[in-house]
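One such given next:
>
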Amino acid sequence: MQNNILIIDDEKKLCALLARIIGLEGYRVWQAHTGREGLKILTNEDIHVVISDVKLPDISGVDLVRLIKEKKPFVEIINLTAFGTIQDGVAAIKNGAFDYITKGDDNDRILPLIARASDKALLQLKLFKLENKIHRQFSFDAIIGNTKPIKQAVELAKKVSGTDTTVLLLGETGTGKEVFAQAIHHNGPRKNQSFVAVNCSSFGKELLESELFGHTAGAFTGAMKDKKGLFEEANGGTLFLDEIGEMNIELQANLLRVIETGEFIKVGDTKTLKTDVRIIAATNKNLQESIEKGFFREDLFYRLSVFQIALPSLNERKDDIRLFALHYLKEFADKTNRKIDRMEPEFIRLLENHAWRGNVRELKNVIERAVILCEGDTLQANLLPLDFFLDQESPRSPFSLATIEKNHIQKVLHYTKGNKTEAARLLDIGLTTLYRKIEEYHLE
């Protein structure tokens, strides 16, 4: 990346001379003769380093440092002055200047100084872009959906994100519980600290206990050295406990103690450790039923459910299906370097009439599969799985022979891309019979 330098100095000859010297070093240089002119260039161009005279006709170069940092915090500023004072130098550095040098006396310093300032600016720019990307990725605006149920869930999440309150996310598998957990964390007071996630259904009791609290060397067979647990790793940040309903009831007592006291003990140790984490838990189970059956502690439930957010299933927000499909179409088309930017009406209709048992996760998989199979620029209905059409609504009983026959003919027609002669051959029926069935079942 070419480094871009802006020089602001009302002494035009000196400004031009300095621009030529810097330009010969391979930098791209802009010139301005007032503070306002410099700020305008800074707004319109990708400037990395500003070299500004302290005495400008319209604004103090020291004050200009503050204005530039407010507009573009990653830009580095070097102040130049003909009559340097310690007071001005201190003020410039305090406002965020990279350095403060005297004209004439420091000519041999200017190029090395620009090189160091430019390196720092480019590094800060990369960090600034990364932070913006993370913010966009985990902002509430990134949560897809315009229907009332999802908007209500987002509003609740926004309200609780600014607190340290424990949150319990409820919803079917694939409804985006971790997406909400990430958004709550990254828009809350702990956003600059760790977000650590664990799926409680992925481990047995002993392994999950070790994962959460850590262990000492020799605590059990295979424990060769001390290991930090997730409560240590997440200290100061957020711990997301996914599928909390699957946690062993004996282990639930240990979790309750951490939530209540902020204290825990590693497996195989006797020393009490302290931790400060925010807990966000999630489950697709009815925890009240689990409590009645003796699988979940009631006191833990009340500790976790200080603030509950119920996430709607995709079947409760059918009007958002098209938005999701377009989002994932762009994502997978970009990932595979394909020019696919449309979906035929029948493809969308089938998506909207499908019973999404796997919710958003299932829809994402369906679109990814369709993009892989697509040979043109449009996703068509025949790219959907062959058993996809069995879920379509029918006025008949789903168990009737007529319903089964209709769905089967429809599948074959999609498979042959509407070629009725080929469909009749595959169905082993006459073409006339196929036309009659198409008319009977209103397949066109």
